[in-house]
Amino acid sequence: MSEKGWKDLAAGGKITEPGNAAQYKTGDWRTFIPDVDREKCINCLFCYLYCPDMAIEVKEDSTLGEIKLDYCKGCGICSSVCPVKCIEMKKEEK
Amino acid sequence: MNNKLIIKPLTGAAAVSEAMRQIDPDVVAAYPITPQTDIVMKFSQFVNDGKVTTEFVPVESEHSAMSACVGASAAGARAMTATASAGLALMWEILYIAASNRLPIVMPVVNRALSAPINIHCDHSDTMGARDSGWIQIYCESAQEAYDNVIAAMRIAEHEKIMLPVMVCQDGFITSHAMERVDILEDDKVKQFVGELNLPFPLLDTDNPVTYGPLDLFDYYFEHKRQQSEAISHVFEVTDKIYNEFEKISGRKYNRVETYEMEDAETAIVALNSTIGTAKDVVDTLRQKGEKVGLLFPRMFRPFPAEEIAEILARLSAVAVLDRSETFSGTGGPMLADIKSALYEKENKPVILNYIYGLGGREINPAHIEQVFSDLKEVQKGNEVEKLTYLGVRE
Amino acid sequence: MKLNIKDLPKIPERLGPGHRLCSGCGAPIVAKMVLMGTKDPVVVTNATGCLEVATTIFPYTAWKTPFIHSAFENSASTAAGVEAAYQSLKRKGKVKEEVKILAIGGDGGTYDIGLQALSGALERGHDFVYLCYDNGAYMNTGIQRSGATPRGSSTTTSPAGEAVPGKQQFPKDLTAICAAHKVPYVAQGAISNWKDLITKASKAFAVKGPAVLNVLSPCPPGWKHADDLAVEISEIAVNSKIWPLYEIENGQWKITYRPRENKIRPVEDWIKMQGRFRHLSRKENHHIIDEIQQWADENWDRLEKMEKATSNQGDSEEKQK
Ligand SMILES: Cc1ncc(C[n+]2csc(CCOP(=O)(O)OP(=O)(O)O)c2C)c(N)n1
Ligand code: SF4
Ligand code: SF4
Ligand code: SF4
Ligand SMILES: [Mg+2]
User: What is the pTM of this model?
Assistant: First the structure.
């Protein structure tokens, strides 16, 4: 985002675009990357529920969706809560 | 003008609560403190008698009073509170937040000294301390002025070019507790005058979620402060317009800078609030004796109408600035600094004397004002006079 | 009400990605779970602290719901103002829908500097939910002690030193303080027990009047544990009874989760997971672990007593005797 001058900003520091932090990618904080073995996944959705970065999507049919690597910080919580241990945290090649 | 005259005997505090009743704000959050108590008590009675539709929040502190006003105003409500002295001091942090978030809260303040030692009487150290908080400050000589200006302030605060909070100040006890004949407008007129409120980006518009009060670092904070300065730069034009409209419904004309007998004055006193009333009588007496004396009252103190004041004062030979508070800067009272800097660009400058007076409610009587005018006369004659005087203190 | 995890993604996401809380921070998990407690629109007020700072760095906001931060100590009074505005505008027909109000504060903003504003708002009976995410220190300013910091914990203002081994005091009992206000609903929760927590949040949003949720919020840099441990460490806190799960609903105390015998862990297990307690493993400091254990046991006993004393069933049992 190019930095706006004072005339172009909403008065008083308000942010009028809800959730626009999505434009800020925290994925590059990551050292480890979650690698999901979809074969083993039982779609319990614990990883979605516990991801602190709202980086795990759930599909319309309530099964596990994509991991949004734009936001995943690589904390490994998803891996630690997975009951069938199908998420492996791997060192990310950059 | 088809104004029905309603004259009521009211104290300054009662007059302000009457204005609040007529404004009928959506939310009032307030906490009692002498000498403001009469405002909250009377307003609470209006609430419990069903005379207003206001949601009244009897908070547990002034810090919470201002915080609740911030929440209510950001949510889209017309919000008011009232305070004095320590109450204003306790609100301190949130005063800045209200102004910086551009929330048009109106707050009658009953001026009272700050502790220590604790003192319940009038001086201006409370609101003078808050003069750089980003609030607009309007000062009032009488109950009538307080009543009128609380109503006008609502419109100034909520004007789209302004969107800033306003304090409307009156002197503790001297004005707040003295009975006066106050000309009250009809309820409908006030209702029409203040109009329906439509704040931009209310929190309660949940279909359009807005974030208020983000972390704003070196990359944007300055821009937001610049916006605030811009809003302040429109206050005079907007105030003039609203005072004109107010005159149409009330027959009473207010000015950002009030003058008394200034047309041909050679010396003048600059003061705020009730002292102006005391000084008017002295000016009348001196005028009868042929002395060309006058008064200047910066009704609007923030923003400071510097140019206009300089224009008027530059013609004089000597001016006395009466400050009802001390800055402890070692250079005199707070108003002195503003008056002096207003005159800096002028080629002809009057000699300026500063008087710190009335602290903690110490009486200021006509004899004191006469002394000030006589000091000014000495200056005119070319005699040396003390530049800074503590008027009315025992040596 | 039956909670099904499959229904949760259908609840609107109020806190989105792109926030800058640390990797593995418990606070956004707490916030998202609590917000899963209602489908109604929610206005959030948030005290200064990690959650607020890291989710709203201008020009970005991670919030997709109306949000206001005012100051550190006034989340509850800001919410009181929002609630007053809501009541007023609703009465006048200017707001039509049902709106919930959630005030959030960290332990510093709740146990300490914001306690007065919270107490006032609870006493006045505003219809709102207050959430304290308790990470046991002022994390945002660099891990200083708070009234919630556990005894023995090393923080930057209660450091483990040569003479003083970390924080000397036990934490104050915020949950009980809130319950003493006799508000309709107060509960303590943890993210490890997600059904318990989201159910409590639903109850809190559903009641008329004030409700308080006090939720344990692990903090990897503050507690000094690995980034992936927020859930496990919460679970052990619960199972060691240092952070019991209970609620006070209309004056009735109820332990909502009793760890089975084989699940109960000594508090030492919880303490050993965290670097902030590292100095307690020194022999001369062992007594502190014992004291913490005793404190936790006594706390649990008191909860059991409160549950008995306030349960209607308990009353009738008494009478039968
Ligand atoms: C009046 C005031 N005092 C101090 C601060 C500095 N301050 C900001 S956040 C904070 C600590 C927040 O701690 P807590 O509420 O526990 O939230 P956390 O950061 O741990 O999530 C402090 C001390 C402040 N912003 N305002
Ligand atoms: S590693 Fe952490 S941030 Fe990444 S998807 Fe898993 S839980 Fe989310
Ligand atoms: S936690 Fe594991 S099993 Fe459950 S949905 Fe995620 S990847 Fe699949
Ligand atoms: S310091 Fe702790 S509470 Fe703050 S963002 Fe990091 S993990 Fe979260
Ligand atoms: Mg904290």
Answer: 0.97
